[in-house]
């Protein structure tokens, strides 16, 4: 190999070392919550949000969309996910903020709303029955 090839390989190795992938790890989530669960009280109207601990990487956010459906996200920020920094609900509950980086996410779809956030929150599947919400991946 020539000197130029070695140089290119060295640059690639140095650039890739120490970089984390901005991917929240996959962990099994399978949760069924009755709609009468007192933790879900804030979901009675569109725009309401709650956090549930003990599931996912850093807990869950369940949000009642403006059209009346439900979405669920992992609270683990996608900004430096290896830190497992849990996003917190902002007053008014339409956004959540990563307290470690200051990144902000929209709860309607999990999309980034303020830098340094560039990747949406990890979303889980939500199935609603008459009496419960089921969250899984």
How many strands appear in the DSSP assignment?
Answer: 10
Q: What is the name of the CATH class?
A: Mainly Beta
Q: What class would the helix/strand composition place it in? A: mainly beta
Adjacency order of strands in the biggest sheet: 1-10-9-4-3-2
User: Low-confidence stretches at least 5 residues in length (pLDDT < 50)?
Assistant: 4-20
What does the average pLDDT come to?
Answer: 88
Tally the helices: what do you get? 1
Q: How much strand?
A: 25-35%
How do the helices and strands follow one another from N- to C-terminus? Answer: HEEEEEEEEEE
CATH topology: Rieske Iron-sulfur Protein
Main pleated-sheet profile: 6 strands, antiparallel
Query: What is the first-to-last residue Cα distance?
Result: 47 Å
Q: Kindly give the count of domains.
A: 1
CATH superfamily: Rieske [2Fe-2S] iron-sulphur domain
Any idea what the radius of gyration is? Answer: 19 Å
The CATH level-2 architecture is identified as 3-layer Sandwich
Name the quaternary structure.
single chain
Share of helix among residues?
A: 10-25%
State the shape.
globular
